[in-house]
Amino acid sequence: MSNLPTFARAATLLATYGVASCSGADSTAGAIAGAAAAERNASDRPFTTTVVAQFNEPWAMTFLPDGRLLVTEKKGALKLYTIGGPVREVTGAPTVAYGGQGGLGDVVLHPNFAKNGLVYLSYAEAGEGGTRGAAVARAKLTLDANGGGALSNPQVIWRQVPKVSGSGHYGHRILFGPDGHLWISSGERQQFDPAQDMNANLGKILRLNEDGSVPADNPFAGKGGVTAQIWTLGHRNPLGINFDAQGRLWNIEMGPRGGDELNVVVRGANYGYPIVSNGDHYDGRTIPDHDTRPEFKAPAVWWTPVISPASFVFYSGSEFPAWRGDALIGGLSSKALVRVEFDGEKAREAERFDMGERIREVEQGPDGALWLLEDEKDGSGGRLLKLRRQVEPGRRTETAVKLPSAAAPRMWTR
Ligand SMILES: [Ca+2]
Ligand SMILES: [Ca+2]
C-alpha cells in the first residue's frame, strides 16, 4: 500500500533504537518524516502499535512464565524470543508435513509447566499414500543459557482419524481448560461430511486428558474409539477455542463463502456443518441457513462477508480495562482485529480495527498488552506487533513508536 515505505522506515527505526517505549520516543516518532498525517489516524485508536520482531511464516505463540515467547513457524521451526533480545531456535520440534495450510501449528504450555516443562505442539503429519492429518505431540522443554532450548522425550498423544489427501482445514488449535483437560479443535480437512461422521474426529471439538486419553465423562465416552474424544461436532475449520471468565467454552471457525462463526461450545451439541451454514459452498451450491434447522446449534455471531477468524483471546488485563471480558479476534482476509462484546451467551461485534495485514494470532501478554502475529507476507515474513493503550497526549508519560497507518485505513463498518 501507499505508505509501505514509511511502514518499513518505522521498523528500521525500531531496529536502530530498540523495542518498545523510551523516554525520547517523541523525537523518534518525529523522525518518521512524512508520517504525521498517518499518525493522526493512529492517534484516533485506543492503542499504539509497535513492531517488535519478525518471523518466517509464524502461526502461533505462547508466553513462558519468565515473559519470553515461544513462536511456531509453519515450516517446522519452534522459536524462543526474548523480548527486546534475540530470537533463538528450540531444537527437537516434530517433523511436519509442510504445505498448503499445514506445517507446525499451535503451541501451548502444560498447566504445570513451571514444574514439568511440558510443551504441547500441533502440526500436520504425513501419512500413507500422500495423506496427511493433524497431530498433537508433547515434549519437555529445557532452556539453555544462550536464549534457546531443546525439546526432549517427544510423545504423539493425538492424531486426526482418518488421514486424508489435501492440505487444508487442519484446525488444530489446542488449549488447556480451567478443568485441566486438553481441548483440540479439529478441522474437517475440506472433506465436508466427516464433520457429521461420529467415526471420524474431523470437524469436531475434542476433550482429552493431558496424556491423550479420554475422560470418562465425555458425552460419547461409552462409544469408544475416536468417537469417545468428541465433545461437539458439525464444525468446519475451527481455528480458535477459549474459555471465558464464566467458564463457558467458545470457538471461532472459518465459514465457507460467508458464515464465519463464533459459537458457545455446549457439551454434545451439533453445529450443523455441512448440513447448515449461514454461508454457502464456494462452487455456488447453497447450504441451508441455520434458521432452517433449529436442531443444530446456531452461532452467537456470524459474519457475511467473512472476517476469516484465525485466533482469538478473551481479554482480562489491565492495559485495556474497557475490553475486559471481550473477545479479540485476529482476521486473515479482513486484515483486522475484531472486538466482540458479550451479554451472557449473546454476543455482537463491537468494533473493528484495520491492521493493514492478515492477523494470524492474538495473545494477551503478562503485562496486559495485546500481541499480534501477522501472517506471512510474500516471503517477507510476518511481524510480531505489541499493542498498548494510547495515552492521551496531555497525560503522556511514555510513548511507543506509533506506526504510520495509511496502510491501515480505519474501517469501522459492520
Ligand atoms: Ca497462542
Ligand atoms: Ca447458507
Short description:
This protein has 414 residues and is mainly β. The protein has helices spanning 4-17, 25-30, 36-43, 113-116, and strands at 47-55, 58-63, 69-73, 78-81, 87-91, 104-109, 118-126, 132-143, 149-159, 171-176, 182-186, 204-208, 230-233, 237-243, 249-254, 260-265, 301-303, 309-314, 327-331, 336-343, 346-354, 359-364, 370-374, 382-389. Strand 3 and strand 4 (78-81) form a beta hairpin.
Describe this structure in words.
The protein has 414 residues and is mostly beta strands. 8% of the residues lie in helices and 38% in strands. It has four helices and 24 strands. It has helices at residues 4-17, 25-30, 36-43, 113-116; strands at residues 47-55, 58-63, 69-73, 78-81, 87-91, 104-109, 118-126, 132-143, 149-159, 171-176, 182-186, 204-208, 230-233, 237-243, 249-254, 260-265, 301-303, 309-314, 327-331, 336-343, 346-354, 359-364, 370-374, 382-389. The protein has an eight-stranded mixed sheet, with no helix packed on it. A four-stranded antiparallel sheet has the order 1-24-23-22. The radius of gyration is 21 Å and the shape is globular.
Distinct ligand kinds: calcium ion
Tally of strands: 24
Oligomer: single chain
Unreliable spans: 1-40, 393-414
Percent strand equals: 35-45%
Query: In sequence order, what are the helices and strands, one letter per element?
Result: HHHEEEEEEHEEEEEEEEEEEEEEEEEE
Biggest sheet, strands in spatial order? 2-3-4-5-9-8-7-6
